[in-house]
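=== RUN LOG ===
request id: a7f3
mode: sequence -> structure
chains: 1
length: 175
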Amino acid sequence: MTLRGQNIYLRALEPEDLEFIYTIENDESVWEVSHTQTPYSRFLIRQYLENAHQDIYEAKQLRLAICKSKTAEAIGLIDLFDFDPQNSRAGIGILIHQVQDRHKGVGAEALQLLMDYAFTHLQLHQLYANIAEDNQPSLQLFTKFGFRKIGVKKQWNKIGSQFKDEVLFQIINDK
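=== RESULT ===
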């Protein structure tokens, strides 16, 4: 599956993504965003990639690589998770790995592509996102796309020795 935008495209994960995913999953600087707490081995990531062929109805998740259109370089990941077809909803998360690729519209383009896919092809009624209270770029991005703050989970995530609030955002597709 490939979803094409103007500057990026989203594609299914491939076995060749092993090193890219290994790098992201073991980068402690993004563990707070990805809720990772321990390093992943190449063996575990290889197993994950071998099962990436499962469709969203089996896996309850869809993880796509965000790639630059000009170079085909993978620069991030975007997920639908906790897919619930009965209630027609899923969570959505996004990570642009390198700082130099952020704040260039890549996240917005990826989010728009996945929202369109979720609402049109999966016919979801709603999407939600869990965002750390101090992650201003993500808070602004999801707000820009019509997500509304519906709650705050107080002291939800322990980061180092302190607890941080997490904001719950939701968008309902009324079409």
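=== NOTES ===
The two ends are 24 Å apart (CA to CA).
The chain has six helices and eight strands.
=== END ===
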